[in-house]
Design brief:
Elements: E1 2-7, E2 19-24, H1 27-39, E3 43-49, E4 52-68, E5 74-90, E6 99-106, H2 114-131, H3 146-149, H4 157-164, H5 169-199
Antiparallel strand pairs: 1-6, 2-5, 3-4, 4-5, 5-6
């Protein structure tokens, strides 16, 4: 079933459950935010890539307007809800400054393969240790979802957008597992290279081979 949603296209990917702080300064989005706040309604952030609005985006709920400036600009706190697919895009909604369109909600199927989560968890641990950011593991719940780690994998915006389009949790975990399997050897090799570079120029205490 389709419905209409105001749009705030951005060159970012917002995942369900994600908290996002935005500074609103354009007149069209000031109007959008004030109308959403007044009507207690939501808006959509379709992903803007390659100079165009993509077919997929995330519905956004305004949690609070944190600050209003004298010139009408605002700082707002928001949260990602569900994923949608754009069925029809209007560059400007009738009588409004902002874009909008007809959307269809994308079902998020929470099937999973427990083994994949364990594999992802181990690869994440290795990656974060190599990068010296082990603290990211502390806040990770045992039953974490793909969306919970999606912004902490070194994915490009294009890769995050590809992840956004996957309906099943099992597919999202497979996507992450494949990505981590590919980049971890590169990261580990880079760290080894950094250590070798650091050692060059130091006095070396080497045991000569006995031959």
């Amino acid at each position: 079933m389709s419905r209409f949603l105001p749009f705030f296209p951005l060159n970012i990917v917002v995942f369900p459950g994600e908290k996002l702080n935005l500074h609103i300064f354009e007149p069209r989005y000031k109007q959008l935010v004030m109308e959403c706040q007044t009507n207690d309604s939501t808006f959509g952030i379709p992903v803007y890539l390659d100079n165009g609005v993509g077919d997929y985006g995330t519905e956004i709920k305004i949690l609070s307007i944190e600050k209003k400036y004298a010139n009408g600009e605002m700082d707002i706190k928001t949260k990602g809800l569900g994923i949608f697919k754009v069925k029809e895009f209007q560059r400007q909604m009738p009588g409004r400054l902002y874009a909008g369109g007809e959307i269809e909600d994308v079902p998020l199927i929470l099937d999973e393969e427990p083994l994949h989560r364990l594999q992802v968890l181990e690869l994440l641990r290795q990656l974060y240790v190599a990068l010296g950011i082990q603290s990211l593991m502390i806040s990770l719940k045992p039953d974490f979802l793909a969306y919970d780690v999606a912004h902490h994998l070194g994915l490009s915006t294009e890769q995050e957008y590809a992840l956004l389009q996957l309906h099943r949790e099992s597919e999202r975990m497979e996507f992450i597992l494949e990505h981590l399997t590919g980049i971890l050897p590169v990261v580990l090799e880079t760290e080894r290279l950094k250590e070798r570079v650091k050692l060059n120029g130091h006095f070396k205490h080497l045991l000569p081979p006995n031959f």
